[in-house]
Design brief:
Length: 332
């Protein structure tokens, strides 16, 4: 990774959604890599000011990607690179609020792209979703060509829509885009909440001595990918020429059962309240998820480093260190 890391020194980078789980970790890394300026554009709709990295080269603009004034303010800094991570997150939220989902993930993405094209950025990296764009008929491990147009939530539809828009800007305007398909990201920086992922929510409940409610029977599998591995993939996508115009999976390439994850969380937190089983959600039909990361290895030299259990320990440490902030912020 050293070869791509040095490329960010002295550069201006715009990260939409930079206060979120992936974004806060990406911005911290970019600041450490001596980017000239890391501009975060985030409306804090699902993030918290205390979680934003603090450094002299990090500038936070509290604003909405649907707001032209805010976009102009962000792009006035003439970013070399854009990482578009802002999104209405995620499946259940989109089922409950499908119009907001389309506004932010559809129109919002279109607007961020329009400004990127006008600014002539060197690279535009879009955060798509592996769990979103592959369908029941896609073969596992999922390969990039095998996308589905028969999806199960508005979020999955709008994540795919975002890819279609980035491809359109690439095809018509030669905008150097890359579509990053993340698989189940986990790591420090994700505050638990009603619409958040299962790992931070389980960690939170376990630390409050509650039983962990599995939606299903626990044999479901996920391809949980540690946030630092995602960031290494993203940084390579920002630099490698071979990535331009491509959609590339960023996963761990390994599947884990939900019940095993829950047991590890209970063990790490000394929670003896166990596990409960509740009904699977109607849209939650993809019971098994597994990425092929061959393309990422080939084009990006991507190699996930974090062992699943060690990653869960890191999440636990982060929860312990930020216990008060998390308690104040977690909304269910
Ligand atoms: N976390 C995952 O498992 C996962 C998996 C696949 C894809 N993704 C995608 O990766 C990206 C980052 O995910 P994350 O887990 O960090 O999510 P996140 O919700 O933590 O981060 C998204 C950020 O966008 C901000 N935001 C939302 N609407 C906005 C708006 N209208 N204007 C400005 N900011 C806005 C939120 O406040 C938040 O900080 C998202 O695009 C998500 O769809 C995530």
């Amino acid at each position: 990774m050293e070869d791509v890391y040095s490329e960010y020194e002295g550069k201006v980078v715009l990260v939409t959604g930079g206060a979120g789980c992936v974004g806060s970790n990406l911005c911290r890394k970019l600041a450490e890599l001596n980017a000239k300026k890391v501009i975060i554009l985030d409306n804090l709709s699902s993030a918290y000011e205390w979680n934003i990295p603090k450094a002299d080269n990090v500038v936070f603009i509290k604003g909405d990607i649907l707001d032209d004034e805010m976009l102009k303010r962000a792009y006035k800094n003439k970013p070399d690179y854009v990482f578009h991570l802002a999104a209405h997150f995620a499946n259940q939220n989109s089922v409950d609020n499908p119009e907001t989902d389309l506004m932010i993930n559809g129109i919002g993405t279109l607007k961020v792209l329009q400004y990127a094209q006008l600014a002539g950025v060197e690279r535009f990296v879009y955060s798509s979703s592996g769990c979103g764009v592959y369908g029941l008929e896609s073969k596992m491990p999922f390969e990039e060509h095998d996308v589905s147009i028969s999806l199960h939530t508005p979020y999955q539809v709008t994540k795919l829509l975002g890819e279609l828009y980035t491809n359109y800007f690439h095809n018509l305007y030669d905008l150097p885009v890359v579509n990053a398909r993340f698989f189940n990201v986990f790591g420090p920086g994700e505050v638990p909440g009603k619409y958040r992922n299962v790992i931070p929510n389980f960690m939170y409940w376990a630390m409050n001595s509650l039983p962990l409610p599995i939606t299903g029977d626990g044999t479901e599998t996920r391809d949980w990918t540690y946030v630092d591995d995602i960031i290494n993939g993203l940084l390579a996508m920002g630099i490698k020429e071979e990535a331009i115009g491509e959609a590339i999976n960023l996963g761990s390439g390994q599947d884990q059962r939900v019940i095993d994850m829950a047991n590890i969380v209970n063990r790490l937190t000394y929670n003896d309240s166990g596990i409960s089983f509740i009904e699977r959600r109607d849209w939650d039909v993809k019971t098994k998820l597994l990425s092929s990361i061959d393309k990422a290895k080939k084009l990006l030299d991507y190699q996930p480093q974090m062992k699943f259990e060690d990653g869960l320990e890191k999440v636990h440490e982060w929860f312990v260190e930020n216990r008060d902030d998390i308690k104040r912020s977690a909304e269910f």
